[in-house]
Design a protein that fits this description.
By secondary structure, the chain is of the alpha/beta class. It starts with a strand and ends in a 5-residue tail after the last helix. About 35% of the residues lie in helices and about 20% in strands. A hairpin with a 7-residue loop joins strand 13 and strand 14. The protein has helices spanning about 15-30, 45-60, 65-75, 85-95, 115-125, 140-155, 170-180, 210-215, 220-235, 245-260, 390-400, 405-420, 440-445, 455-460; strands at about 5-10, 35-40, 75-80, 105, 130-135, 160-165, 195-205, 270-275, 290-295, 310-315, 320-325, 345-350, 355-365, 370-380, 430. The chain contains 14 helices and 15 strands.
């Protein structure tokens, strides 16, 4: 059943200004939003100030402004100002929701407030028939994730809890799932008999961007690996769902997480870019990692023995997200080709400009049987692509949980990384503009080494509209 109101906690914050208001505006423009939007925050604001904040969010984006759509959005806005820990705030929210039967409550607030707000919604009677959307991170380790799940499920049924990860709302991420199961040629080779290794890289060429205090308490392993990259791995490794409904999809993803072996100290290399400790808000002598590389084992029938290599980091040479699935070499080497060291592969570039490539060897002209690796390259240009928050908010309000994580998957993913949260080597310094500590190379040495993404100026261009 579709929600008949959206409540945004943290409505005056940066996330709302940068992502949520533009998503609501986009939903208005495509006719997907026509219900009240109630902002809740503790800023001492009035409704007029809140509306001005929303208008500034839309107008500052640049591009052609649809003034009619903006006016419709502003007309839908309501506002409640108050302390999240005070019952009066929720009493005023209840007044704003009179006649609403199925609201969606979106918690765009610090994780430390999740439990208190969820419990207050329950005490105020605002959880019945409602949904709750929780921003990541969902816990900071296995025990805190379990505790937060217990609190949330004491108030909302699991089917009404939507754990949001904006990364999963990207069109390129969804296309991994579609490409895998919509094309029959992949299935015969998508297994341990033909796949030599899988690499997933998410590289950032910038630092902590003034968020030193926040980042220092999180680090790369929690911020990127545990959620974004493990989620991508689950889409690549999962079995075909029994049907097209979202619970079947989430069943198969959960099985992948449960098949992942818990990480050990020797599976992980942590790095920290030189100069990180001088960032404002970073603790003196901090050991927080800004780079992680790891080797993962998925102990399923399909993937047993195949190395899964994941890495992410800040201050790397470029900004890109890419998956490379390397295939095994032919069983016999028929040609004395000195350039044939690299085997065939499939490449999914997720950012900056989505693309899918299949690499195969092609003979050079001449009498000798010598060739080159060439890519069959498909640019996945999506001029009408929805922004992640646009897609995810619409799905949550419609009750479609396909792109949201379930309790068992969240806890199973934390169980994979928990051992190295507790037991790891110190972070190794690396120079900004490099691919992290050299020690990370050893993780991929047996599989031909890391394949570094290459991004051209053309790749950075926006798609033609």
């Amino acid at each position: 059943m579709r929600s008949d109101a959206l409540v945004v906690f943290g409505a005056t914050g940066d996330l709302a200004h940068k992502k949520i208001f533009p998503a609501l505006y986009a939903m208005i423009r495509r006719g997907a939003l026509d219900v009240p939007v109630v902002g809740v925050a503790y800023s001492g604001w009035t409704l007029d100030q809140f509306r001005r904040r929303a208008a500034d969010s839309i107008e500052s984006r640049g591009g052609k402004l649809d003034r009619k759509a903006l006016a419709r959005l502003l007309a839908l806005l309501r506002y409640v100002d108050g302390d999240y820990n005070h019952p009066d705030t929720f009493a005023r929210l209840e007044e704003q929701l009179k006649g609403v039967r199925h609201p969606t409550h979106y918690l765009a607030i610090p994780p430390s407030l999740f439990g208190a707000v969820i419990q207050s919604l329950g005490r105020a009677g605002l959880a019945e028939g409602a949904r709750v959307v929780v921003e990541k991170p969902f816990g900071r380790d296995l025990e805190s994730a379990r505790q937060l799940n217990r609190v949330a499920q004491a108030v909302f049924p699991e089917s009404a809890i939507f754990r949001i990860d904006h990364f999963l709302g990207k069109e390129a991420i969804e296309n991994i799932l579609y490409f895998r199961f919509a094309n029959s040629f992949l299935e015969p080779i998508w297994n341990r008999d033909h796949v030599a290794s899988v690499q997933i890289t998410l590289a950032e060429d910038f630092g902590v961007q003034g968020r030193g205090k926040f980042y220092d308490g999180v680090g790369c392993l929690r911020d990127v690996i545990q959620n974004h990259l493990l989620q991508i791995a689950s889409l690549l490794a999962m079995e075909p769902p029994a049907s097209g409904d979202f619970e079947s999809l989430r069943d198969e993803k959960a099985k992948v997480f449960k098949a992942m072996s818990p990480l050990r100290r020797r599976d992980l290399v942590r790095g920290q870019f030189e100069g990180y400790r001088k960032e404002p808000g970073v603790a003196k002598g901090s050991d927080t990692e800004t780079f992680c590389a790891l080797r993962l084992n998925i102990g399923s029938w399909r993937w047993a023995g195949v190395p899964w290599l994941l890495r992410s980091g800040k201050k790397l040479p470029l900004e890109a997200a890419e998956v490379v699935v390397r295939l095994k070499a032919p069983p016999q080497r028929l040609f004395a080709d000195p350039t044939a060291a690299e085997t065939n592969y499939l490449r999914f570039r997720l950012a900056p400009r989505p693309a899918i490539a299949v690499a195969a060897r092609v003979k050079r002209a001449g009498e000798e049987f010598v060739g080159d690796q060439k890519e069959l390259y498909m640019l996945d240009e999506q001029p009408k692509e929805m922004a992640p928050y646009d897609r995810l908010l619409g799905d949550a309000m419609a009750g479609n949980g396909a792109l949201f994580s379930r309790q068992d998957s969240i806890e199973a993913a934390w169980a994979v990384v928990q051992p190295v949260l507790d037991d790891h080597d110190p972070a190794i310094p690396y120079k900004p503009g490099t691919w992290g500590p050299k020690q990370a190379d050893a993780l991929a040495a047996a599989t031909g080494g890391w394949r570094n993404p290459v991004v051209t100026d053309a790749d950075r261009q926006e798609p033609a509209l």
